[in-house]
Structure formats: C-alpha cells, structure tokens
Design goal:
Length: 535
C-alpha cells in the first residue's frame, strides 16, 4: 500500500506559551523554532501577531527556516468589520508568513452566545477571511474551534463551517477538541463522517489532553484519515496540555498501522533527535524533565527488578517495545533493594567497569546497596552517588578534600525598612593538600548558604567546580516523629548540560543535604579528572 503524506504542525510557541508558569522570550521562541525545523516539523506556529509584544517582535524578525513553514495564528474577521478594515486580521496578514491559521466558531452555541450573530453571518466571517488570505498568496488554514462539541450538538452547522473554509480555498480544515473532553471512539466516528464531505488530505486534528487522551485521539483521527496532526513539545499547553508531539512522532513512524499508512517526513536522524529536542525545551524552561515521559523520559527504558534486568540483557524485546537508541534515548538498569547481581553488573558496565560475575566484590556491593536502602538511601534515582560508592569500593576515587566542620545559622529579624526577613549564614572548614580553608557563605536557606560557602574556596579545586550548579533539591521524610529520618536528593548540572543526582540520608535535614552536596562536588571532580589531594 502506498503511503500518504502526513504533515506535522507544532503549536508549542503559541499553545505551549499558554501553559501555567511558561513564558517564552523572543530568543526562546527562535531557538525552539530552529530545533523544530531541524527535527523535521512541517509547520511551526509562531504565535499571534499583534496579540502581545513578544509575538509581534518574533514575527518582525522571524528565524530562517530550512524545512518548516512558519505560520501565524489569529482570528477570522470580527462581526461588523470587513476583511480590509479589521485590525486583528490585518496584523496576522501583515506578518507576511507563508501560512496563516485562522480560528473561527464551529459550535452554534458559541455563535449565538459569544458572537451574538446569525449562523449565516458566521459562515461569512470564515469564508471572507480565508478568501482574503488566499488572495494575498498565503496557505490558509481554518482552525475549527470546539469542532467535536459543535458536531455533536449540530452536525449540519459544524460541517457548514468546514465547507465554507474549504470552498474559500483553505488548504487545511483543522478539527479541534478544544476542551479535551472527546474520547477516541468518538473522534474516529466523527472524523469518518466528516470524510464524506471533506477529503482527508485537507483535514487536520488538534486535541487537548483533559482526559489524558490527546495522543490517542490524534492517532485515531490519523487512522480514520486526517493528514495533518497538531501538537506541542512535551505536551505543553493550557490546563492539562496538548497532544504530545514527542509521543506522536515515534508512534506514527514506528508503530502499525501508521508506519504502513503515512510518511511523516521525519528522517532516521530526525527520529534520533526526539529525546534531545524534548530535553532542550526543558533546559530553556529551566525545569526538570519528566523522567517517566514515553519514549524520551530518562526512566522510559529503566529496569529495576532483578528478573527484568536478566531478561532484558538476554533480549531487550522482553520488556522494551523499541530500542531506546532509535529515539536518542538509552537503557538504564537500576540499582536498588530489588536489584539482583544482574543489575549491579549491568550498571557497572554503564560506568565502564567490567567485573567477573563471580568476583566477591559484586555480592558485597549488592548487600551494601540493600543495607543502605533499608536505612533510607535510594540509588535508582541517584546513580552518581552509586557510582562513587562502587568506585570507592574498588579504590578508584581519589581523596580530594576533608570537611573538618560546618555550621549553619538562620536569623529572623527586621531589616532597615522594618520588614521581617530570614538570613542564613554558613561556615565551612575544609582541608586541601594539608591546608585549612575557612569560608563563609550567605543564602536564602541552609542548603543555598552551605553551597555558597563550600564552593567559595576549595583551593586548587575551585576552577574545576566553577560551572557546577545545583538545579533541584528534593526532601522526603522517611519516618515520622521527632527522630524522623530525612532523605535528600540533589540534582546538579554544569556547562555541558549533563545532569547527575546524588543522595544523602540523616535524621538532620541539613546534614543529609550536605552529604548529597559533597557527593555532587566529588562526582564533578572525578569526572573532570581532578588530581588527588597531596595529604
């Protein structure tokens, strides 16, 4: 069967910007657009010209794209305005993008309540706006807002909206599940019925994730016959997000029936960059990646149980639906209190350490892991700490510095303006090459202050850790009561953007934090090849 072309339309720069806590700068938008272009996306929706200064600035100086078509988003003309006398429509067309996507009402309820006009007038808004876009040489798309709700309420009117756009020359009619409430079987049925009136080569699908079905709904629409899919990087979007392009791309390329039905234009190299692009977005947003995200998450191919690890090592297909390298990810064989010897050996190989399975060190290491996890440690999420522990047992980690003592003081007081503030000071004494260094740091909390003090002066090691940053800090209380045990997990990174996790456990939260911090610095020094201390 000859495959049909399926077009990928990314809306991260508009829909993604509606995510709570997300605010793209113009530079962010440009960098994301370039990454999407390199990935192999067909259309990149840059935003809404005129809606805000950031979007306007982006379209005033758009990035040069090699593959993708830059698209401007906006509304059809307003009631009572002509296409030549509507500032909103003019701003969209003035952006001079090769394509425009115009949103319009397709639910008669909204036409009556929100617009307060007749059904006939609404159809004129759609056809006039699309026709003007086409007249100006743009590839026009009609974004049928709330299409599925509108179709269920009044299928004749919803179809009439699509036909008005199609008749005016729209290249794509995009069926939107705007509130994310439609389920996969409904999507397939409705799309199949729409195909009797509009060819699938002119239909797109845009789904929200309010029932956790955005990806499933999109796939069912493709199966039914639509040939444009819209989504966002990592599923960003308002409320619960949009269809996740990072899940859609591998599923469409690798899974049946889609890989036999459609050609997305994503190359083998493009597919291998999916994980990289996903994590690039998280870096831009300065947030931790979702470890459990399908295909691209750090735990997507992670195996913890000893029996699972044994099976995966013999044949990965036992517990993995694809090879992780296909999407640029990698397999992780975790070490925990559920681990067997296979886990230990596999993880050591990841570190470049080859041990004979019969070596007594393996059994001792396994017992130590289980004993330490019983006390509260967790190594499946802190591989840097586990690697240090393993290498120390093998005599491979040099001694860099000794911490003689540390002290933290938190003071709550009134500042010069009479405001109540909390100030934290930390003092750390370390020995490097037989010389004592005393450093004082100030921060917005004990961990921040200790980090500032410890890294203020580490003698000859200061340059090695100059780019080290602590990017996340998680605390878990393992037991209740006044003698509770606390586990602290610290995530660190450096200029290479490599991330590593270390763990500390203690009845004292500051002590646990400091232990995890020491492991993080030691790991950085070891990986940087820092020399051992002279004493």
């Amino acid at each position: 069967m000859e495959r049909e072309r399926l077009y990928l339309f990314d809306t991260t720069l508009r829909d993604g910007a509606q995510t709570q806590g997300v605010d793209f700068s113009v530079e962010d938008k440009t960098n994301i657009a370039k990454a999407l272009d390199k990935l192999g996306i067909d259309y990149i929706e840059g935003g809404w010209p005129g809606a805000n200064p950031g979007d306007t600035a982006f379209f005033n100086n758009p990035p040069e794209l090699q593959n993708a078509t830059l698209t401007a988003f906006g509304m059809t003309r307003r009631p009572g305005r002509s296409v030549s006398n509507d500032p909103g429509l003019s701003a969209i067309l003035d952006a001079k993008t090769p394509a425009v996507c115009l949103v319009g009402k397709s639910w008669d309820f909204h036409v009556d309540v929100a617009l307060g006009i007749t059904i006939e007038e609404n159809l004129e808004l759609i056809s006039d706006s699309i026709a003007e876009s086409v007249r100006q040489g743009r590839e026009a798309m009609y974004d049928a807002e709330h299409f599925f709700d509108g179709y269920k309420a009044n299928p004749e009117f919803a179809l009439a909206c699509l036909k008005a756009a199609y008749g005016a020359g729209a290249r794509w009619m995009v069926l939107c599940d705007t509130n994310g409430g439609t389920l996969p079987d409904e999507v397939e049925r409705i799309v199949t019925e729409v195909l009797e009136h509009i060819p699938g080569s002119h239909l797109g699908i845009h789904t929200h994730n309010d029932t956790e079905n955005a990806v499933a709904n999109t796939l069912m629409a493709v199966k039914a016959g639509v040939r444009q899919v819209q989504g966002t990087l990592n599923g960003l979007g308002e409320r619960c997000g949009n269809a996740n392009m990072m899940s859609l791309i591998p599923s469409l390329v690798l899974k049946e029936p889609f890989k036999s039905m459609v050609d997305t234009g994503i190359t083998e190299e493009g597919l291998k960059s999916v994980t990289l692009v996903s994590r690039l977005l998280d870096d831009i947003l300065n947030r931790s990646p979702n470890l459990h995200q399908a295909y691209v998450g750090d735990a997507a191919f992670a195996h913890k149980g000893g029996l699972h690890v044994s099976a995966v090592e013999k044949d990965p297909r036992t517990y993995e639906h694809i090879e992780p390298q296909i999407v640029g990810n990698k397999r992780h064989l975790l070490v925990s209190d559920q681990a067997g010897r296979s886990n230990i050996l596999a993880q050591l190989r990841e570190f470049g350490l080859e041990l004979d399975p019969k070596d007594p060190k393996v059994d001792r290491m396994l017992e130590e892991v289980k004993e330490r996890e019983f006390k509260g440690f967790s190594y499946d999420g802190a591989l840097a700490s586990f690697e240090l522990m393993a290498r120390r047992r093998m005599g491979l980690v040099p001694k860099y510095f000794d911490v003689e003592s540390f002290r933290v003081q938190v003071e709550r007081r009134h500042n010069a303006r009479g405001e109540i503030v909390s100030v934290t000071d930390a003092v750390v004494k370390v020995m490097v090459d037989g010389e004592r260094y005393l450093s004082v740091g100030e921060g917005n909390g004990p961990v921040n202050a200790l980090d500032a003090a410890l890294r203020k002066d580490l003698g000859k090691y200061s340059d090695y850790i100059d780019d080290l940053r602590l990017v996340d800090f998680k605390v878990r209380i393992l037991t209740s009561g006044t003698e509770a045990v606390t586990r602290v997990l610290i995530e660190s990174t450096d200029k290479s953007n490599k991330r590593w996790f270390t763990v500390g456990v203690s009845p004292n939260i500051v002590d646990a934090s400091f232990a995890a911090m020491i492991d993080s610095i030691t790991y950085k020094l070891y990986k940087a090849g820092a020399p051992a201390s002279l004493q």
